[in-house]
Design goal:
The protein has 197 residues and is mostly helical. The protein has a domain of 133 residues: Tetracycline Repressor, domain 2 (Orthogonal Bundle), CATH 1.10.357. It has 9 helices and no strands. α1 crosses α2, α4 packs across α5 and α6 crosses α7. It is elongated and about 55 Å long.
């Protein structure tokens, strides 16, 4: 009979996410992770493999509980154009509301880890593609619903919105104030035909 794990895997994975997110991949040791997760080093290796494998699992957990949750919620609660607006507004609120200014774990990983690890870079690019796909599908739906100009190119605009999002997240880490972050988002909202009332 297989031995049951003596810990709540979701809880300890959330602790790993928080540890990697606060310190970054390179600065986080296996000892830091085991301590944050409240498990022994042997349990960590037996359950997750090495630090790199745990980091990949942590990115997935972060994407599920943050980015994917937000996309699903906003698409179910809003019309397409408003879903995009709400996404950007929520990112600004979240960035300003974080006293530690940790930024986005995916964006941080794109900057810090992806240039040195092609496999992790591919994983991170996949998550960023999901955000771009969210923008693209909502632009397409908004065009059909006459919420945005018909001339708007969904492919180009979704790439632009992703760039705006990344810029907001990076600027927020430097301590930028809400006014600056909103000024970065505003031209993108103007492309969509101005903010919805």
């Amino acid at each position: 009979m297989a031995r049951l794990k003596a810990f709540d895997e979701d809880r300890v994975l959330d602790q790993a996410v928080d540890c990697f997110w606060a310190r970054g991949y390179e600065a986080t040791s296996v000892r830091d992770l085991a301590e944050a997760m409240g498990i022994g080093g042997a349990s960590l290796y037996n359950t997750y493999g090495d630090k790199r494998a745990l980091f990949t699992r942590s990115l997935e957990r972060y994407a599920n509980r943050s980015m994917r949750e937000r996309i699903a919620r906003l698409e179910s609660e809003n019309r397409p154009k408003e879903a995009i607006e709400a996404f950007l507004a929520e990112i600004i609120d979240r960035s300003i509301g974080d006293p530690d200014r940790k930024g986005c774990m995916l964006v941080n990983s794109a900057l810090d880890v992806a240039p040195h690890d092609a496999a992790i870079g591919k994983v991170v690019a996949g998550y960023l593609d999901e955000i771009r796909a969210f923008f693209r599908r909502n632009i397409e739906a908004a065009r059909k619903a006459n919420q945005v100009p018909r001339s708007l190119d969904p492919e180009a605009t979704s790439g632009h919105l992703l760039g705006v999002l990344l810029g907001i997240r990076v600027l927020a880490r430097t301590g930028a104030r809400r006014r600056l972050l909103e000024s970065v988002a505003q031209p993108a909202l103007d492309l969509l035909g101005g903010k919805s009332r």
